[in-house]
Amino acid sequence: MPTKTRQTVAEQVDESQLTPQQKSAITRRKNKEAAASAAGTAATDEGAAQKPAAKTTTRKTAAKSTTAKAATADAAEKPAAKRGRKSTKAEAPAVADDVEVTETVEDVHEDAEPEVIDDADVPDVEDVAADDDSADDEDSDKKDDEDEESSEVQASRAEERGGFVISNVDDDAPVAQVTVSGATADPVKDYLKLIGKVALLNAEQEVDLALRIEAGLYAEHKLAELPDDAEKRHRWDLEQIIHDGKIAKNHLLEANLRLVVSLAKRYTGRGMLFLDLIQEGNLGLIRAVEKFDYTKGFKFSTYATWWIRQAITRAMADQARTIRIPVHMVEVINKLARVQRQMLQDLGREPTPEELAKELDMTPEKVVEVQKYGREPISLHTPLGEDGDSEFGDLIEDSEAVVPADAVSFTLLQEQLHSVLDTLSEREAGVVAMRFGLTDGQPKTLDEIGKVYGVTRERIRQIESKTMSKLRHPSRSQVLRDYLD
User: Fold this and answer.
1) 3-class DSSP state for residue 204?
2) Would you say residue 120 lies in a domain?
3) Is the separation of the CB atoms in 288 and 278 below 8 Å?
4) Which residues pair with 383 in a beta bridge?
5) Strand-pair partners of 114
6) Where is this region: Disordered (predicted)?
7) Does one domain contain both 267 and 200?
8) In the prediction, which pLDDT does 18 show?
9) Are 201 and 252 in contact (CB under 8 A)?
10) Can you tell me the distance from the alpha carbon of 464 to that of 453, in angstroms, rounded to the nearest whole number?
11) Which residues pair with 178 in a beta bridge?
């Protein structure tokens, strides 16, 4: 009974896609497989003639022979297939790989003659299966290694592109990097997601990181004092300690970024964006890492809170207001606001400046002045109303603007005054106009007017007195009395 062998890769290829040389190689391969199958069948028939009762055993032996042959072909095909994938770049990758496998196997067995396999030489089916499994395991391990190398290459390329990388593992273990690049619709949510990947630290881990940071700083100090002719080994050891200290510093920073976010939430709505508050708080966190003293026995978060709050409040004092106010005055304004809120709750009404002054130990005038400093400027273009048709500047009175009625009345008064002055002589009208500033709005003295006309100041006084008597006559003054109201 003929034995059915495992279908090879070459038999699965569409022959219409192969070249004549490849078809010839496949034909030779099929002939050799047929010869091997015939040899196995002959051996099986011979065994069946010697032992007619062991019919089942004969079939098993033939199956073993066929399986062994197929396993040998598989073992030869796998490395050839890998070489084919590395060296062949064709338009149809699947076909090219199959052809390469066929040609490689054909080259290996080109001069081999068909052999009759004896039962004693045929390995057990279980042994062949075990060998097959081990070969598959080796292939899978190699594939996993290639995948890991590919992921590492991708991570390094992403880091070169400027992506934001967060470490989520222990410093002693290989660092696994998560790279995120590009803008998102919600940068705050994206930032919180990234910092949430870093695990929090306990007290022992904080002390361990602080020790490594301290060792790195000391090594940096020693390296600066190291002479130029020092041993390279000693210099290399110091550089490694410095590098380890920097890694520990970054780890301590990344593990406490969520503390900055929780503190920055308390200062929202005071003139700065939430992300700006977080960035300023991160600067305070860096300062806390550099100044942390683990020998005091306190947790790092207890110490870092004060540095973070100080950095945020300083940034708000410098950047939050349109008109900058000195930091010490900002502290007084904040203290006044806290006392005012507390007294509002206690008294049930707004406290008076006198009550605030008594509570803050300052004068009422100083309280009013500080309250003026604390006012926020508002834009004149702020829209008002539901539709926003009007602006805030439209409702503010211009104290320097002229009322239209007053402007008309002033124009009529000037016209009437000039008509009255026209009834006087030229010198009399000129003296009165310069004396009261009717021309340029600047009244002149008697000496200045006397120099203009070349007379003494006494003569100018006499002319003025005579002219004013004429103007008081009802024929001239009656038209001007209506403007006295």
Assistant:
1) helix
2) yes
3) no
4) 391
5) none
6) 1-167
7) yes
8) 64
9) yes
10) 13
11) 166
Cβ-contact 345, 332 below 8 angstroms:
no
The torsion angle over the Cα atoms of residues 457, 462, 463 and 468, rounded to 10 degrees, is 130
Whether residues 388 and 277 fall in one domain: no
Helix (H) or strand (E) holding 150: helix 125-160
For residue 327, name the pLDDT band (cuts at 50, 70, 90). confident
Q: What is the reported pLDDT for 43?
A: 52
Residue 166 domain-assigned (yes or no): no
Residue 137 and residue 24 share a domain: yes
Tens digits of residue pLDDT in 81-137: 444 444 444 344 333 344 343 333 344 344 444 343 344 443 443 443 444 444 455
Rounded Cα distance between 194 and 166, Å, is 7
The pTM of this model reads: 0.45
Chain centroid, CA 26 distance in Å? 59
Pairing type for strands 177-180 and 164-167 reads: antiparallel
Residues 241 and 289 in one domain: yes
Amino acid at 38: A
Q: How far apart are CA 22 and CA 31, in angstroms?
A: 14
CB-CB contact of 261 with 195 (8 Å): yes
Q: What's the number of CA atoms in the CB half-sphere (13 Å) around residue 145?
A: 6
Answer whether 195's CB lies under 8 Å from 254's CB.
yes
DSSP 200: P
CB 450, CB 456: distance < 8 Å: yes
Q: Which pair of tokens denotes residue 134?
A: 């081990």
Element (H, E) at 167: strand 164-167
Parent domain of 140: 10-150
The Cα 146–Cα 443 span in angstroms is: 99
Same domain flag for 125 and 21: yes
Which residues, at least 6 apart from 480, have a Cβ–Cβ distance to it below 8 Å? 413, 416, 417, 420
Give me the numbers of helices (H) and strands (E) for the chain, helices first please.
18, 4
Helical spans, DSSP H, in 256-326: 257-264, 274-291, 300-319
Q: What is the pLDDT of residue 41?
A: 58
Alpha helices by DSSP H, listed for 322-473, are 327-347, 353-360, 364-373, 404-421, 426-436, 446-453, 457-471
Same domain, 258 and 306: yes
